[in-house]
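In practice, a research group might receive sequence data for several interacting partners and want a quick structural hypothesis before committing to experiments. The following worked case mirrors that situation: the sequences arrive first, and a predicted assembly follows.
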Amino acid sequence: MNCYIKKFAFFILLALITFSCKEDQDNQILQNRAENRKALGISAEDLLSDDSYKSMTVEMVFSPAYRPTQQTLDGFTSFINSRVNKPDGVRFIETIISDQNGPFSISQIRNIENEQRTIYTQGDDIAVYVYFASGNANSDTNTTVTLGSAYQNTSIVIYEKTLQEVTNSVPDDLTRLEATTLYHEFGHIFGLVNIQNDDIHPGDKHEDLDHPKHCIIEDCLMYFEAQSITKDNLKLRMERLKVLQNIPSFDLDFCIEDLQAKGGN
Ligand SMILES: [Zn+2]
Ligand SMILES: [Zn+2]
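A structural hypothesis for the assembly, expressed as tokens:
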């Protein structure tokens, strides 16, 4: 009997220990994630400069049918490396998941991140998460589509299904639209344009006040049409991109100056 009680007490103790370990683990996970659960634009300097973080890890999450083109991924690597100041380098990780059921609200996109993101900022490595979604944005209408969204300090969604639909998956068109959308959303987590109201160019000089948080320069990557666009304008834009032959970049007068002011290149 005594032995039975002892055994019973032992199991209770074990359960308590296990339970408190689980709690510690959960707290630890929340703590690790807190750094990646901040407002858009807050981490611009941390991403661009080498002050707090010496390296960067970009985790790209997608299901097999929605992997961006190899050309897009290659271009993306050089885009990031030419903008950020990370002496210990930038790592690109691919995480393969199953198709998720769209269309998605931003809160569903956040839930998917909670479940699927595996890499968080740790030590002097800052982590960024990009989800290439297997569905459209639920805000799309018959005439307008959302191509991507930067919704937190280190979180981006690219509506890959939408990009495939509007380009009929023609490889060159798809690559151009993927790259433009991806770079544009990265521009937002880099703080462009005036996301945290700390733009070095005052008033309406840089920010397009008719389309807040975007650039007034029409050829710039941060021009408003790169994110959400009417289908008619998208056709025109695709034609313009074709003529340009390459992906738009940050304009040298304003956007690049802002990135440099935050420690980028
Ligand atoms: Zn935008
Ligand atoms: Zn610009």
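Before designing any experiment, note the following. The chain has one domain: 37-261. The mean pLDDT is 90.
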